[in-house]
Amino acid sequence: MQPARSRSRSSVQIQAEAELERRRREEGDKPLTDLITWIQSEFYIPELNGPIQLYPYQIATLRESQAKDSEGNFKYSLVVWGDIKKSAKSSLAAAIALYRAFHTKWGSVKIIANDLKQADSRVAFYLRRAIELNPRMTNIKQANYKTTLPNHTTIEAIPIDPAGEAGGNDDFICFSELWAAKHKALESMWSEMTLSPMKFGKSQRWVETYAGFSGESPILERLYERGIKGEKLDLSYTDEAGTYHDLADLEIYRDGQMLMLWNTVPRLPWQTSAYYSQEESVLLPTEFRRMHKNEWVGSTSKFVEKVWWQNCYESLPALDSREPCILSADAAKGGDSTSPADCFALVVITRHPNRRDDVAVRYCGIWQAEKGQLLDYGPIDTEIRRLLATFAIVEFTYDPYQLHSMAMDYRREGLVKTFEFKQTEPRLKADKQLRDFIIARRIAHDGNPILTEHIDNANVTNHGEDGIRIVKRSANLKVDSAIATSQGVARCLYYNF
Question: In angstroms, what CA-CA distances link 24 with 12, 28, 59, 89?
Fold first, then answer.
């Protein structure tokens, strides 16, 4: 993908500086109130060691977002800024939040995300950073998650707390990364954080995000469906230097008091073909489309391509009994009369014999019950004890769902240190890490056919930046050894073998 035609960064900066100088001469260096001029003179970013510079589609959309009617009220009470990844959408949300705060006395600005860490680490962080970088903002108080301006307006990053935030009287409310708003508390928060009727026409809700997962991002999906059914706007304009900016292709819509930008193409100089080639090589296809094309996608996709796993094949030496290793297990559950039982998988993971930052699968064992039968754990226990007696197993890591009792037996007997591998966030991170290692050929295997089959059977559910989860492509396929490998790799890398 190539970036759309635009003026170079230097020409944009030159024009902004000239406009700023002209305004200052005319207004006697009074505070500037024009949104675009203010952002390009006061909102600092470290990349430029000075103010951020805006590009034509950003300028046009920002101006439209702040348009007012004949009575001086905002035309839009809700602005959805949907843009592709690395388009500075969080920085722009921070810039307009700070602008609105500076131009509202005794006001309230709230920044909300899916948790307090996310709210404070993106939009609020960029806002605080801009204050710290700007030498004209040294008199602003910042403490914890709250910023107080000289005009007594406060800016807060807040967690999801629908009851605690009910009945607010805010001037500007920013929701960051709304694609991830999937839970009931988040939906309740969206409902509670409505604008006060006392500030009707003077306040706004702002959403910055890219696309989510179809059927799993209910708030954003409703807004998107509403937006694209609205009136498409043409924000083409001629700037003061006489340059015409053709924005007829920009996907921006108006529906009543909602304005929605839904940009799907790169329009900025740093969004190069080389950058996208690199991103496409490391991301799941669905994630690439969602983040870099702003497309709605399904939440399930293939774990890895078969050739990626084949590329990791190596002729590995026999495992030395002194080599530190991790024994990882994914437990089985009994089947019923209509479906086969899941299988029980054991894998042994070590650091790579020649590349100590990489890993290797040195053993894979599989057991499966007959259809409608419970699994016999006797032979499995015997094999685990053999492995513990034969190799330098540092840790036995396991899915606690079925294996807690067995693991506690090994610990009580002093056979091995055990680790309960939680199947929530740690699994999401581990499954993504395994995928990354396969793509980068940082994991070696000896071609074990069952492990290869399980890797090929695996799909993943996408959990955004939290990671991915390995799942079966269909109910009758097995992925247990793939999951055991994911857990084992994560724990092997934890230790400095």
Answer: 18, 6, 20, 28
What is this structure's pTM? 0.69
Q: The tokens of 33 are what?
A: 């109130």
Is the Cβ–Cβ distance between 322 and 497 less than 8 Å? no
CA nearest to 13, candidates 41, 33, 45: 41
Does this chain's domain 55-282 share its CATH topology with 306-494?
A: no
DSSP letters for 210-276: ---BTTT-HHHHHHHHHHHTSEEP---EE-TTS-EE--TT--EEEETTEEEEE--S--STT--HHHH
pLDDT in tens, 24-70: 455 444 444 689 999 999 999 999 999 999 999 999 999 999 999 99
- For the domain made up of 55-282, give the CATH fold: Rossmann fold (3.40.50)
Phi and psi at 32, nearest 5°, equal: -85, 135
CATH architecture of 306-494: 2-Layer Sandwich (3.30)
Ordered by start, the domain boundaries in the chain are 55-282, 306-494
d(CA 493, CA 287): 25
Return the residue matching tokens 């969602």. 290
